[in-house]
From TrEMBL:
GO cellular component: membrane
Positions of transmembrane segments: 33-54, 74-93, 100-119, 125-151, 163-182, 194-214, 226-248, 260-281, 302-324, 336-357, 364-383, 389-414, 426-445, 465-484
Membrane topology: Multi-pass membrane protein
Descriptive protein name: MFS general substrate transporter
Keyword annotations of the record: Membrane, Transmembrane, Transmembrane helix
InterPro entries, alphabetized: MFS, MFS_dom, MFS_trans_sf
Boundaries of every Major facilitator superfamily (MFS) profile domain copy: 39-488
Main location: membrane
PROSITE patterns recorded: MFS (PS50850)
GO molecular function terms listed in the Swiss-Prot or TrEMBL record: transmembrane transporter activity
Length: 512
């Protein structure tokens, strides 16, 4: 059916005024504005706490390295294992959300996160710490895709959805800064354990509000007949874990990549990946990652570009904090202050973005964010020995938060609006899989580059990581420019409404 026929049918079924009203009004599932505020607090809080434990841990890591005697070869693992486990398990948990509903998966993920965050604060050595960080990763793997699923299925296309999604993205830099602040405070004054204890308290508050305010969708999901793709799960999870493990650990193994277990795990990972592709394409009745998802125009290049750009952001977070503390000699609290523009700027940019997403084309916003990614790491790559904060670090922080916030909001709205309600869990898992796997993969590559150039000194070897990130950022923005076209996030019909309209128009045409 042509676009003009669809547009004609759309105009006959809904007026633009009706669509605009539907896109702005409170969803009927909420009994009151306070019910909606509680729901939004829960979802925004979950993003906040995920970022808290991601960003803050990077600032805490230098202190932990000394206190728990973490060897150089294991230094990146407490930071990267969290993202690795989360990224590897997002697809299965997204499918569980599509099967049993977002409510049960979301709340269960928060409870699990509370348990292992609390235990993490009692870590006695770096092995226990890494173990707790790995098990922590199961929590976000459950509540991040189910959270996006709840947002995407409850809110229809329009300004209200744009604003809520933008606020959801805005709480990433707020949580990011809070993590850095409490990590710096804990490391310098009260002990690193309090970083975990404070996070546990915040998690408990979010969990209680979530239990009370998130609408249950379990009954509706039972009627959709969605099933778990177990073969796909048992191949994609080990594939991702083994590949990223080999890349991350290859630079620290006793003989580098010549150490036998490194190429073995790397090859095994790709064999599992090949098996996953075969199962998804030719065997599974309900694939974990359906091929028709990539038929959405612009989806393939968008995912590739996001993989590069989120990897750039991961390198920036990890090595900027290490560069500021170890090369520039800033204290943990000074590091916190230097990262403050990411919080304030991100909150402003994301909130304003929610008000203009239906006015400006997404393609322009993605181009702007891509350039910001490039500048954020380029400024650290060329930073002089005694830099002026306002000339280098401040604009790098603003560019970093602009890059991640704009990209995350525009692509989240595009992907969730392109998927029917039965696939909102899939949409959430794909969005967050790219984020966490991009961070883990490129952080491993950057760590390899830094290790191979360690004889140049920390300043120069860290700059190698920033130059690598600059190249990746350029690649991401080129792919976005050439392959992705996203329009304005205006009020419109849902996927189900469009499919129903198409069936009606087809039936009318055949009768005529």
């Amino acid at each position: 059916m042509s676009d003009s026929e669809m547009e004609t049918g759309l105009q006959s079924k809904y007026t633009q005024e009706e669509l605009e009203r539907l896109g702005r009004e409170r969803p009927s599932i909420f009994k009151s504005i306070w019910h909606e505020i509680g729901f939004c607090f829960s979802l925004l809080g979950s993003m906040f706490i995920a970022e808290y434990f991601t960003s803050g841990f990077n600032v805490l890591l230098p202190a932990l390295t000394n206190e728990l005697n973490i060897p150089r070869q294991a230094e990146t693992w407490p930071a990267s294992v969290f993202s690795l486990v989360t990224g590897a398990l997002l697809l299965p948990f997204g499918r569980l959300a599509d099967m049993f509903g977002g409510y049960i998966v979301f709340v269960s993920g928060l409870i699990w996160f509370i348990i292992w965050s609390l235990i993490g604060g009692f870590s006695q050595n770096y092995v226990m710490l890494i173990f707790c960080r790995a098990l922590q990763g199961l929590g976000p793997a459950a509540f991040l895709p189910s959270g996006i699923m709840l947002l995407g299925s409850i809110y229809r296309p329009g300004p209200r959805k744009n604003l809520v999604f933008s606020l959801y993205g805005a709480f990433a830099p707020v949580g990011f800064f809070a993590g850095i602040f409490f990590a710096g405070l804990s490391a310098q004054f009260v002990g690193w354990q309090w970083f975990f204890y404070i996070g546990t308290i915040l998690l408990a508050i979010v969990t209680v509000v979530s239990y009370l305010t998130i609408p249950s969708d379990q009954t509706a999901k039972k009627d959709q007949g969605v099933k778990m793709d177990w073969l796909g799960t048992f191949t994609i999870v080990p594939a991702l874990v083994l590949i990223v493990f080999a890349i991350t650990d290859g630079s620290h193994a006793p003989q580098g990549w010549a150490t036998p277990y490194i190429p073995v795990t790397f090859i095994l990972g790709w064999l599992f990946m090949a098996a996953f592709v075969y199962i998804e394409g030719w065997h599974a009745s309900q694939p974990l990652l359906p091929a028709d998802m990539f038929c959405v125009k612009g989806m393939k290049p968008m995912i590739v570009a996001l993989f590069f750009q989120y990897g750039v952001f991961g390198i920036f977070l990890f090595y900027a904090s290490f560069y500021i503390e170890e090369v520039l000699g800033a204290t943990p609290l000074m590091t916190t202050a230097w990262f403050a523009p990411m919080c304030v700027g991100g909150l402003i940019l994301a909130t304003v973005g929610g008000l203009i997403l239906h006015i400006l084309p997404g393609t322009i916003l993605l181009l702007l964010s891509g350039l910001c990614y490039v500048l954020s790491v380029l400024l650290f790559a060329i930073i002089p020995t005694s830099p002026n904060y306002w000339a280098y670090i401040f604009p790098a922080m603003i560019c970093a938060t602009a890059g991640i916030d704009i990209t995350y909001n525009v692509t989240n709205i595009f992907i969730t609006t392109s998927m029917p309600k039965a696939r909102q869990g899939l949409a959430g898992s794909v969005i967050n899989s790219i984020l966490f796997l991009g961070i883990s993969f490129f952080l491993g590559i950057a760590d390899l580059a830094v290790s191979e150039t360690a004889d140049r000194g920390k300043r120069q070897s860290y700059k190698v990581a920033f130059w690598l990130a600059t190249g990746c950022a350029v690649m991401g923005v080129v792919i976005m420019i050439l392959g992705v076209r996203v329009g304005k996030a205006e009020s419109g019909m849902t996927v189900e409404e469009r499919e129903e309209l198409e069936r009606e128009l087809t039936a009318t045409k055949s009768q005529g």
